[in-house]
Amino acid sequence: MNYYLTLALLLWGYMSLWFVISLVKGRNDVADVAWGLGFVLLAWTSFFLSRTSGTRGILVGILVSVWGLRLAWHIHARNRGKAEDYRYMAWRLEWGKWFYARSYLQVYLLQGALLFLIALPVLIINRGGGGTFGFLGGCGVCVWLFGFIFESVGDAELARFAKDPRNRGKILQSGLWRYTRHPNYFGEVVQWWGIGLVALGVARSWVGMIGPLTITILILKISGIPMLEKKMAENPDFADYKRRTSGFVPWFPNI
């Protein structure tokens, strides 16, 4: 069977399984846990399917696994013992009798399609990962590492801030959050551009640029920052924080 079709069918089955899990648990935010794990699944399945990936494929598989497993655990720990995420609760009310059909199509299958697009540089590396791992590959790993540290530190700062009951109703404005309103999103995007650079050493690498472009547009314009800041705008302190702090790329605050 065709390499990409096999991976697409696997991903369809994977997302369908998570839809069933969401029905059992009665919450759609399990899709956020499925997100990172889905990349790990695609990375290693594509690696073993191709059998030509070599060192580059192993390296990228490790990078994706470190990112995906950390993200999945972070989201699971954040949601554990709490009510369903506010976004999914709103859709539950909005979709009414079409809730189950729209959940399957718009949460799980759509997320699966986006996951596949974002993972394209990994799939391309594993399809034709031969060749010399040169300067661009090294730069890509360094970029990925910078993004991973940025995202991990940002998530840790926010988790620590949220655990303190004295911070209830407040907005985190210290640490990395002093320089960007979304250090975790920035770090995630940077990581995928790093993997895109690693992919530039293989054939048809330009197609892999669809991946980092997709995650950038998704976070900046669609389901990442716009949805979160709509919620944050309900906080009276947000307007001043927004005025002073860069929206995405870290920069010195405007005091």
Overall spatial form: globular
Q: Calculate the terminal CA-CA distance, rounded to whole Å.
A: 59 Å
| Integer average pLDDT | 93
Work out the helix count: 12
How many discrete domains? 1
Cα gyration radius (Å):
19 Å
Helix coverage percent: over 70%
Low-confidence stretches: none
Instruction: Write the element-wise H/E pattern from the N-terminal end onward.
Output: HHHHHHHHHHHH
Biggest sheet layout: none
The secondary-structure class comes to mainly alpha
Instruction: Let me know the number of strands.
Output: 0
What is the percentage of strand-forming residues?
under 5%
What is shown here, in short?
This protein is an all-alpha fold. 73% of the residues lie in helices and 0% in strands.
Name some characteristics of this structure.
255 residues, 12 helices
Structural features, described:
This protein has 255 residues and is an all-alpha fold. It has one domain. The protein is 73% helix and 0% strand. Helix 6 packs parallel to helix 8.
Furnish the topology, listing elements before pairings.
Layout lengths: L2 H23 L4 H21 L3 H26 L6 H10 L3 H20 L1 H8 L7 H29 L19 H17 L5 H4 L1 H13 L2 H8 L5 H7 L11
Helix pairs in contact: 1-2, 1-5, 2-3, 2-5, 2-6, 3-7, 5-10, 6-8, 7-8, 8-10
